[in-house]
């Protein structure tokens, strides 16, 4: 069984064993040879998905939530977790809180790469690579640290505020890096796929 | 006496009474008729500043600091304050801590408008105006609030962490808006000019 999570920049596949990526342009020329169970947040691939081998599992992710307009990728990641804070750190970072299988709410911030690019666009003086080793306990004393601190510290602080002792589940491209700042954390590259798999398992008679 | 603070997007003038702006393009065609005491962080205006009516006061801002590469606009704002947290909220937001006339350190984050644009560039689904009234005490339940919360909350949290009882001096385009979230805060549109004025007063015999 092949699962596929179609995002803004990539389509990520999982066959139960390995994970691989296609860019959105590559995805738009990709011809499936077997059923692909997918979720999608990208309007640019709508035509491609009319192929009947693509099966949308969004309707089967029955997340208990009062949130209006929750992206299906966030819903899928949350669907894999009963209790805890879910942080999906990609081009955007989403934080969502789950308690006893209910989605309590969440919010969206720009991701690390997005934040660095936005600073670069303000001034060439701010076009400086991240110092991933910056000390978050000391006030910066040079521009590279001032930027690195200003990128990482607000994210880490806010996650800390929300976690308050709960387990933190990281996923997404920068999830592993961010997870290092927290003791009660787990990095799970497959989190979205686990939620998708749960939805499929709950609807085997319809989907398989 | 006319003071001028040349930034990345605007040149801001102050004549001791009123403040006005020119875009950088406008500034590059502007012909001064009297002495203009300026500070500048923008490399695009270097040629214009060769006119001898423009007087650079950067060398006279003698801020006590070990920070390497502090922008002169940040130095000028800090030079106006002996004790407290200085927040300049424009296209970038800078936070700097002053204690007993010494600059302790600081850092740089993208500003509110910059952050909103960076989200918009990720996906059209994130192209949503700020809800400036978003409740920062409740987890968001819809996309507009999720974005507004994710833009404002990290900034407010981080300022709170650093202020820890100290006075907070806001300046810059979003300074007034952000100052509303803090009781021990003051919005001073003229903060950079006050620092420039101090430097001029201390060097009257050379500059005037």
UniProtKB/TrEMBL annotation, chains A, B:
Q: Which UniProt keywords apply?
A: ATP-binding, Coenzyme A biosynthesis, Cytoplasm, Kinase, Metal-binding, Nucleotide-binding, Potassium, Transferase
Residues recorded as binding ATP, renumbered to this chain, are 5-12, 91
Q: What class of enzyme is it?
A: transferase
The EC number(s) attached to this protein equal 2.7.1.33
Q: Which SUPFAM superfamilies match?
A: Actin-like ATPase domain
Where is the protein situated, by its record's location annotation? Cytoplasm
Q: Which GO terms describe its molecular function?
A: pantothenate kinase activity
Q: Which residues bind K(+)?
A: 88
> Which amino acid positions bind substrate, per UniProt?
67, 71-74, 143
Q: Which residues form the active site?
A: 73
Q: What coarse category fits the chief subcellular location reported for this protein? A: cytoplasm
This protein's pathway = Cofactor biosynthesis; coenzyme A biosynthesis; CoA from (R)-pantothenate: step 1/5
- Its domain of life reads Bacteria
Cofactor(s) the protein needs: K(+); NH4(+)
Catalytic activity as recorded in UniProt:
(R)-pantothenate + ATP = (R)-4'-phosphopantothenate + ADP + H(+)
Q: How is the cofactor bound?
A: A monovalent cation. Ammonium or potassium.
Q: Which family does it belong to?
A: Belongs to the type III pantothenate kinase family.
Entry-linked NCBIfam families: baf, PRK13333.1
Q: How does it assemble?
A: Homodimer.
The entry's function note states: Catalyzes the phosphorylation of pantothenate (Pan), the first step in CoA biosynthesis.
Recorded protein name is: Type III pantothenate kinase
């Amino acid at each position: 069984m092949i699962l596929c999570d179609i995002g803004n920049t990539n389509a990520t596949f999982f066959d139960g064993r390995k994970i691989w990526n296609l860019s959105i342009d590559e995805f738009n020329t990709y011809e499936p040879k077997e059923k692909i169970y997918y979720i999608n947040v990208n309007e640019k691939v709508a035509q491609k998905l009319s192929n009947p081998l693509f099966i949308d599992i969004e309707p089967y992710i029955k997340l208990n939530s009062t949130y209006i307009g929750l992206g299906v990728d966030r819903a899928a990641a949350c669907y894999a977790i009963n209790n805890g804070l879910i942080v999906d750190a990609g081009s955007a970072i989403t934080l969502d809180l789950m308690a006893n299988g209910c989605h309590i709410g969440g919010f969206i911030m720009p991701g690390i790469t997005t934040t660095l690019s936005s600073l670069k666009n303000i001034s060439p003086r701010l076009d400086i690579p991240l110092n991933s080793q910056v000390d978050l306990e000391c006030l910066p004393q040079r521009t590279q640290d001032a930027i690195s601190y200003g990128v990482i510290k607000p994210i880490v602080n806010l996650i800390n505020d929300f976690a308050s002792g709960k387990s933190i589940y990281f996923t997404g491209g920068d999830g592993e890096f961010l997870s290092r700042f927290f003791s009660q954390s787990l990095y799970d590259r497959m989190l979205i796929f686990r939620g998708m798999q749960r939805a499929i398992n709950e609807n085997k008679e319809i989907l398989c």
